Backbone:
């Protein structure tokens, strides 16, 4: 009965983009193995970092300790995975619902002994599963390499995969809602990119710096800031977790909450639609 | 046993402005081939969509094998071939049947054997590894038919099953359908090909503007014209015309013989006896009936 889940994964694999990301992640991790060389030793436990055979200097100031350098590298990788996987994964999954809803395809799927709820979730989680596998692979692979190289096993770095996936769930849920409503993959993708990469950071900045004085607009910005995906806060959270700083999970809970709302609305529209 | 049943099944769009189907009542017995006829926009596809849970009824109810059509269980023993199917081009024939078979609830154990048997049945076993984007329309139609049979359904819904298929392919599909009927399957067809429908259907329903115009056994639609086409040996045509005049039979010369108005079978036998008595050799006698096409055009005009 999980044929649609399997078919969704097969469909994503056929687009090659997911496999390309997987190959790029592997190449990146292999590059880490061969290009990054760390020596920690001496009386003052001095760190000597070599990349492609060249020594990395820290300006005039002393080189930070190994754990801090590791934190910087892991934060960089997590940030890259966050933005790149988000950008590419949204692109890869944008067609999942609009394609399924096309006449001649949806008819056949709905004629199977599956409830609409079941169809929706198999499709939705099929998309999340493959993206999740790629993110988990990249984070775990890079974690093992860096841990072996530094001799420090920073388990908090592994949580970044979970944070990235929760954020992806949130954005993917928004994109699905738009896709089910408009039944157009290009428009839903462009709108999602606009929300994630333009609207959300701008609203976040307005809310953070208190630019508006009028209480009505202030409240509107507050509501929008609460509802929209939290890009700035998630990137900051990734850094805080990896670097062992104090952090709050507020943005994660809000992402989960708004994501669930978007999924609920999408499901409601899908269940009530005629095809 | 009733396979498909609907009571006042209605579907209106745009707050009742578009009446796709109104108060449709039907009852199809198990093991029959039931065909839906009607011009474009008559509501045939809407009925299919309602029965298969693709569209939601405005009012009324429908049942498949006693189960309400609003529940997925009603579609457990159903196979469906849609009219404008859009099969994933990145799959090959074998993979397509695998995924859609899984969606139909067929176990992995049964699937491999069924896929192999069905691909042979629709004569695609030599193309099973070819990507669907390279299939012709006819091949896709045959694969779609195989897909509709993957779960060994009791009821098969076919929307234009012979659409885009060449005459040989049509004969093959017809043979598959008759074979399925002989296995006790119920087949619900929507087709524009009236000659095909006439050949294979047990029952027919005609829809117009979302309303059921007539429903009945196929024979009910094929009324006698009361005329016979009689062909005798050419050399004795004059003698035969005299005979008809003597017997006061209204007749006219047709391309391949004479069309005679004959009141009853007794009357026909009487004429045959007379032909024999006059030693005229009969080459052909054909009872002329209205075709389904004649009836269809008459009803819809």
Residues:
């Amino acid at each position: 009965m999980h044929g649609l889940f399997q078919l969704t994964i097969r469909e994503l694999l056929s687009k090659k983009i997911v496999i390309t990301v997987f190959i790029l992640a592997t190449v990146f991790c292999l590059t880490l193995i061969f290009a990054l060389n760390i020596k920690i030793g001496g009386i003052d436990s001095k760190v000597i970092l070599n990349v492609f055979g060249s020594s990395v200097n820290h300006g005039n100031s002393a080189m930070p300790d190994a754990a801090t350098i590791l934190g910087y590298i892991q934060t960089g990788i997590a940030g890259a995975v966050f933005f790149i996987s988000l950008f590419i994964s949204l692109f890869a999954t944008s067609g999942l619902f609009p394609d399924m809803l096309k006449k001649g395809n949806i008819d056949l799927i709905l004629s199977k002994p599956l409830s609409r709820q079941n169809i929706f979730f198999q499709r939705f989680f099929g998309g999340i599963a493959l993206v999740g596998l790629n993110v988990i692979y990249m984070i775990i692979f890079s974690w093992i390499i860096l841990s072996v190289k530094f001799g420090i096993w920073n388990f908090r770095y592994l949580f970044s995969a979970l944070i990235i996936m929760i954020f992806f769930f949130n954005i993917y849920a928004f994109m699905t809602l738009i896709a089910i409503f408009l039944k157009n993959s290009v428009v839903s993708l462009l709108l999602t990119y606009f929300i994630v990469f333009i609207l959300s950071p701008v609203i976040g900045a307005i809310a953070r710096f208190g630019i508006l004085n009028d209480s009505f607009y202030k409240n509107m910005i507050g509501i929008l800031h609460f509802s929209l995906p939290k890009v700035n806060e998630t990137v900051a959270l990734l850094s805080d977790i990896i670097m062992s700083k104090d952090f709050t999970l507020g943005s994660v809970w809000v992402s989960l909450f708004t994501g669930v709302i978007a999924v609920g609305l999408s499901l409601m529209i899908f269940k009530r639609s005629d095809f | 046993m009733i396979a498909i049943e609907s009571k006042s099944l209605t579907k209106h769009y745009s707050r009742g402005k578009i009446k796709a189907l109104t108060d449709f009542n039907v009852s199809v017995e198990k093991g029959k081939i039931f065909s839906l006829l009607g011009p474009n926009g008559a509501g045939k596809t809407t009925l299919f969509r309602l029965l298969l849970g693709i569209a939601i009824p405005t009012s009324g109810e429908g049942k498949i094998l006693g189960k309400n059509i609003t529940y997925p269980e009603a579609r457990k023993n159903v196979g469906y071939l849609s009219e404008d199917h859009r099969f994933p081009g990145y799959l090959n024939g074998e993979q397509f049947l695998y995924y859609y078979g899984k969606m139909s609830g067929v176990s992995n154990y049964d699937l491999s054997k069924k896929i192999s048997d069905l691909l042979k049945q629709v004569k695609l076993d030599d193309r099973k590894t070819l990507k669907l984007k390279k299939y012709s329309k006819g091949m896709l139609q045959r694969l779609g038919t195989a897909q509709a049979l993957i779960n060994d359904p009791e009821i098969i819904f076919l929307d234009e099953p012979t659409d885009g298929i060449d005459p040989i392919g049509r004969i093959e599909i017809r043979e598959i359908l008759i074979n399925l009927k002989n296995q006790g399957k119920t087949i619900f067809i929507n087709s524009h090909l009236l000659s095909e429908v006439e050949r294979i259907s047990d029952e027919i329903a005609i829809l117009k503007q979302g309303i059921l115009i007539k429903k009945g056994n196929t024979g009910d639609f094929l009324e006698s014209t009361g005329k016979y086409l009689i062909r005798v040996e050419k050399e004795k045509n004059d003698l035969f015309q005299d005979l008809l005049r003597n017997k006061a039979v209204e007749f006219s010369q047709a391309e391949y013989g004479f069309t005679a108005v004959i009141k009853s079978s007794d009357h026909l036998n009487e004429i045959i006896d007379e032909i024999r008595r006059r030693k005229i050799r009969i080459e052909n006698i054909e009872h002329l009936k209205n075709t389904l096409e004649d009836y269809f055009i008459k009803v819809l005009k």
In short: Chain B has ten helices and 14 strands. Chain B has two domains: 2-221, 225-289. The first strand of chain B starts at residue 2 and ends at 13. Chain B has a mean pLDDT of 91.
